[in-house]
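User: For my dataset I need records formatted as: sequence, then structure tokens, nothing else. Please produce one.
Assistant:
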Amino acid sequence: MVSEVERLREIIRLDTELSTVQDLDILLERILSEARKLLSADAGTIYIRDRDDLVFSYAQNETLSKKLPPGQKLIYSTFRVAIDKRSISGYVAKTGESLNIPDVYKIPGRAPYKFNANYDRVTNYKTKSTLTVPLATNRGEILGVLQIINKKDDKENVTTFDCNDEIVCKHFATTASQALQRAQLTRALILRMIQMSELRDPNETGPHVNRVASYSIEIYEAWAKRRSMPPDEINKKRDLLRMAAMLHDVGKVAISDVILKKPGTLSSQERARMQAHTYLGARLFMHKQSEMDDVASLVALTHHENWDGTGYPGYIDVMTGKPIKTDGSGRPKPLRGEEIPIYGRVVALADVYDALRSNRVYKKAWSEEDILHEIQSLSGRKFDPELVDVFFGCLDVIRSISARYPDKE
């Protein structure tokens, strides 16, 4: 159990720290984990508003997570809940009121809302106490709902949330809502940049870049934990990488439609121009305003480098496009192995995986068996062998991400 003094210190710290998280998905994950910690809760869920629905966006459950093999994560499916008074979360979003329910299985029959026990039945988990609060702007506009589940006492017994918990949770929700607004604006700006790319390259869509970014942070996190990187450092770099990965192909805005949409094989001159999207993308981030610019520049520049030194663009001056080091024939010398920054190596793998599993104008989606065989065969050639091992270790999470960001019909 967290003491009141410790909880106050945490709230003060979080008021500052949440404002530093820039990516929307990373922020939602952080909001949920910190709220659970503050309130000594076993589980929790965040729903984000999308028009007249709430989208089940993030879930955490300590009891179920402990049953998993080491290093594995809880897999969950996304779904929608109508913003109306029939469900607990829908009621909170509809009315803007908080609900502190001591036992969800003993909700009075006169209450307009009901508890959906399907999740408990499927997972063999027992939800009891819940504290559900709105995430709202200072004008009262509902952004989403934060639901904290099963408060634990010092002996790990499930107990109820008290009035102090309500006060703490509402204050935290106010701070979280401010950070959420900022992160949603950042995500919207990034997606607008992606939409510019999509006008040129129809493959560069919002769902595609969200999947690539989400795969990337899962692969990176597993790799970093293997190397015993401190959790705070991992969290910071996941935040930067997710946004940067979304912009990996933004340089294609500078490539002619004649080349981008050519149905046949590119000539050597056209291929060279297509490959220029790497350093042209990196060039967009050269006037650095933040650490994210550094990471985005590296990702754009190096996500087509190959582990065996057969990729592109190689050692090149981003501003001029001229070689810094040559391979003896006057062409830029490619990067090889760990000369390629980890961010570029991670996004290279994530990008190819998503490209193979997606329909394209020029090809049908591959079967999963063929995709996994191809990735394994490219280990040590195109991809960092360690990252390939990491990829297969977190494949279940990666599969679940695909369902979270489906392509538009």
